[in-house]
User: Fold this.
Amino acid sequence: MSIELPESTIVPPEGSPEASSAAPSRRAFIATTTVVGGAVVAGGLTAGPAVFDAEPAVAAAASPSSRVTLTVNGRSRTVTVDNRTSLLDLLREHLDLTGSKKGCNAGACGACTVLVDGRRVNSCLTLAVRLEGAEVTTIEGLAEGDRLHPLQQAFIDHDAFQCGYCTSGQIMSGVGCIDEGHAGSPEEIREFMSGNICRCGAYVKIVQAVEQAAGRK
Assistant:
């Protein structure tokens, strides 16, 4: 049984005179591909104004937020934040405590180190909404009035910084390291502060400062 195709659907054999006359030249094809009055015309296919004037998609629903109360540097603070907000962004963007620095924002450099309930944490990886009732200490909360924390003073005494960007995280990590009992030797200090990166290479003086604050010097 044979089916007769309409004349318009019959493709002439390749290389035949009919094929050469039927196929548009490259120049003709390019010439017919253009944008005319807001409509794209390409090979006879037209995307008219309906595509370009389409109604904007409905905005996504607002992200869920939560109310959290925590103690920061001895002061109770209550804030409402997006559930995805990190402790670092809560401190910097909501509480204006910019001493904690945003370095890698991936928990690899330690510039954002703070103490939560006395333990060192990378604040960039810590969700603020999980800290209901927690006690947070930042670099701004170490000094007592005009009296510097012993480790802050030790950093000055030993010139344990250069650019200073990592310094707040180094000091907070050093305080935690001492309180955790991991400052018994230079080797132990280096091991337990290995997550804090100093791009200026002031490691030797940082260790000396921690030793001094720990009472070993």
Notes: Strands lie at 34-36, 39-42, 45-47, 65-72, 75-82, 113-116, 119-122, 135-137. The chain has a mean pLDDT of 85. The longest strand covers residues 65-72. The CA atoms of residues 5 and 28 lie 27 Å apart.
